[in-house]
Each structure stands twice: as C-alpha cells, then as structure tokens.
C-alpha cells in the first residue's frame, strides 16, 4: 500500500483504488503545472493513470482556483482535483458526480459545498427521471452504449454526468419505461364487438346455416339416419332431411341386409349388389362402413 501524508494524518491507500468496474485503470488528465506534479504520485500509486496528453476517454481534472476562460469555452466537464485528495484520504472511490464543476465556474465543488451547507449528495428529482425516460424512449436500443448518454450530457437533459444518468436509468428507470411501452398493454376488445364477431361467424358457418333451414329442427338422431342412408354424403343427407327420400329420383338406399352381404365378402352376392347400387355406390359404402 502507498502511504499518503495529509495534514499530519498517516493513511494507507489501496493500489487498486482508481480501477473502474472492469478492473481497468481510471485515466485522468490535468494541464501541466504544480498541481499535476502533486497529483502524479497519488494517482499512479493508487492504480490510476495520469495522461500526458488530453484523451477523449480521460477524466478532466481542474483546480478550483485555476479554471480559465479557455476551459469554460471548451464546453467540457471538469472534475475538481479535490476528488483525488478525498479518495486517497478516505481510501475509497467516491462519487465523482459530487466533484463536477457546475457550468465550469471556479466555485466550491459540490463536495466542499456540502460540508458548508450541510446538504447531502445531489439527488435525482422526478423531473430528472422524467427527462431521462422521455429522451431514452426515442432511442432505447442505445441504452447499453455511451454515445446517447454523452449526447444527453451535452444537451443538458439533467445536471448530472452522463455516467450518473446511465447508472440511474439501468438501476431504477428502465423498468418504468418498459411498463409504458404500448406493446406490453393488452388490447381490450369491447363486448359488443366480440358478440358481433361471434354472430358473423355463426352466419358464415355452413352447418348452422343449413340446420336453420331444416324443417321441424331435425334432431341428431334424424341427422345420423340421413347420413347412414347417404353413405356419409353430407349434401345427399341434407337433401333427405329437407325434401325427404324420393324413390323415383334418388338412388336406392342401403339396407341392413345388403350391408351384411357387403361386409361378408361373399363373391356370389357382389354382382347382385352392383346391379342395385352400382360399382361407385359399393365403393362409397365400403369406405363409409370402414370409417364407422
């Protein structure tokens, strides 16, 4: 462990203090000067990296009393150097959001202001949550990346950093936006429409439509008798039900005795049956009796 001296207090800091959640060193950048020389050993001995040049992924550090007009015009977010000192003193990685300069003003950091005003860390308001949800709802497929969150930070969707907004959404808000999705809401079908649909189906169904035309509302027994006479021919059975059997018009009806002859496979009876019912009639009757 590295030893850190601050105000006469001896403490030991972890060599992995400035590692991110992936186990990679946190990268910092500060403009050359006395402060950089002072922070160099604190960062490197605690596992971090102090970049020689400004990198796009590096955390930008600035001394509260040394912010310049050029830094303000850069429209980039800077973290107070007090963050490094406090992390080392407390030997833990603190919330970097509390040390971000508001509008790049060389004022007290949030952490310092908290000590003076007795206020806690900057919390998310209902307006902040609503702003995040409304923005992400348009591009929710990008929530796992960083680009959309960095864009939100540039546009000032909230006063929090993009890392903080992303963490807030993934831990607390993503379920709310899912509940608001219209896909998850079941579609309510009015009862009247459902009844109408059933009515339409009943009218387009051929069997109920035919049965309504059947005189005297033939029961199931009569229907089965008609099918038996017609060897399973539905249209012919319907003719029997509606108009009755006409010996002069319709082909002969199979009798029980003829069915027994057909099932007996008696070759001597076959010519007689063919003469009475025809070869096609025998074929249909055999298929019908086999299916029963």
How would you summarize what this structure contains?
With 292 residues, the chain is α/β, with parallel strands linked by helices. It has helices spanning 34-44, 69-73, 82-90, 110-117, 126-136, 147-155, 162-179, 191-204, 206-213, 220-229, 234-243, 256-264, 270-291, and strands at residues 2-6, 9-13, 27-29, 49-50, 59-62, 79-80.
Outline the secondary-structure elements.
Layout: E1 2-6, E2 9-13, E3 27-29, H1 34-44, E4 49-50, E5 59-62, H2 69-73, E6 79-80, H3 82-90, H4 110-117, H5 126-136, H6 147-155, H7 162-179, H8 191-204, H9 206-213, H10 220-229, H11 234-243, H12 256-264, H13 270-291
Parallel strand pairs: 3-4, 3-5, 5-6
Antiparallel strand pairs: 1-2
Pfam families: BRCT_2, Myb_Rap1, Rap1_C
GO cellular component, one term: nucleoplasm
Domain BRCT: 17-100
What distinguishing features does this structure have?
alpha/beta, four-stranded parallel β-sheet, Rossmann fold, 13 helices
Task: Say how many strands there are.
Answer: 6
**What's the CATH superfamily of the largest domain, by name?**
BRCT domain
Low-confidence stretches: 5-10, 103-120, 179-186, 192-199
Which CATH class of the largest domain? Alpha Beta
Main location: nucleus
Subcellular location: Nucleus; Chromosome, Telomere
Region (Disordered): 181-214
Domain TERF2-interacting telomeric protein 1 Myb: 124-178
């Amino acid at each position: 462990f590295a030893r850190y001296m601050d105000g006469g207090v001896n403490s030991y800091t972890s060599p992995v203090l400035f590692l991110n959640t992936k186990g990679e060193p946190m990268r910092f950048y500060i403009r050359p000067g006395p402060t950089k020389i002072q922070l160099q050993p604190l960062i490197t001995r605690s596992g971090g990296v102090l970049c020689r040049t400004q990198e796009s992924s590096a955390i930008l550090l600035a001394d509260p009393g040394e912010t310049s007009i050029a830094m303000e015009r850069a429209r980039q977010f800077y973290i107070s150097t007090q963050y490094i000192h406090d992390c080392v003193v407390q030997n833990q990685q603190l919330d970097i959001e509390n040390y971000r300069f508001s509008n790049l003003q060389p004022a007290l950091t949030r952490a310092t202001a908290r000590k003076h005003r007795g206020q806690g860390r900057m919390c998310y308001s209902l307006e902040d949550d609503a702003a995040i949800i409304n923005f992400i709802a348009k591009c929710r497929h990008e929530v796992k990346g960083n680009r959309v969150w960095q864009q939100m930070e540039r546009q000032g969707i909230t006063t929090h950093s993009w890392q903080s907004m992303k963490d807030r959404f993934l831990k607390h808000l993503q379920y709310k936006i899912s509940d608001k999705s219209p896909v998850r809401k079941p579609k309510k079908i009015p009862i009247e429409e459902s009844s109408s649909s059933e009515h339409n189906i009943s009218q387009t169904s051929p069997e109920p439509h035919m049965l309504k035309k059947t005189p005297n509302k033939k029961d199931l027994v009569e229907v089965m008798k008609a099918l038996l006479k017609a060897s399973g021919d539905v249209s012919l059975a319907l003719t029997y039900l509606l108009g009755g059997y006409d010996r002069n018009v319709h082909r002969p009806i199979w009798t029980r005795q003829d069915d027994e002859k057909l099932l007996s496979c008696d070759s001597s009876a076959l010519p007689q049956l063919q003469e009475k019912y025809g070869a096609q009639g025998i074929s249909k009757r055999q298929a019908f009796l086999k299916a029963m």
